[in-house]
Design brief:
alpha/beta, single chain
Length: 244
Amino acid sequence: MTAAESDAVAAVAIVVPVHNEAALLGGCLAALDAAIAHTRRTHPGVRVVTVVVLDACTDASAQIAASWPVQTLHIDARNVGTARRLGVAAALAALRDVPLGATWIATTDGDSTVPAAWLSHQLDVRAAGVDVVLGTVRPDFADLTVEHAAHWLATHPRGRPAGNVHGANLGLRADVYIAAGEFADLDQHEDVELVRAARAVGARVHATDEAEVVTSGRFWGRTAGGYAAFVRATHERIEREAQG
């Protein structure tokens, strides 16, 4: 890892990959706007750049993003790892005058909504000496059956985060990100691979559920093995158990 480990965060690069999320993107960006406003109160002086990466979008996602104070990047990769990597590169370019050791990268997804304290919590954890923050994600209970929602709550006790890696709720120092080799051009698990590489270069990793992100509870997502596949598999298991 590079130096500047004791530097306070001076800037944040937020990256949101999007592929045809017109139905949910407005809620995602409204939540991010509220989180940024909250962070400006709790961490005055920290610069924030948000990049929305519109990857092969054929719906109204671009028009929705244009109505918010974000930078947009249009690509045609159809690959979430590539989208995250190019988004981070664009955000870091906009913050090129800030040392990497004083820059924080935070990622979420276009089908997700962050809580108001999402970013400020990551910065507080960073101030305690952490290099990578693994936040928890839960499905939107409005998309689930009562039984499925109850199962999720029973198996995810508060204060005991499992330490799973979710690109929808991930933060890390920019110099650690570069040392770890950046997001790979993978169509799934690019977040898991990045954190694995960060651990390999000695990053201090912290799991927390204090700023949990809500993501779509849909069963069929943008990648074959993403969060939607996990939600679907959980639902199918609950259905089988209910049928005896």
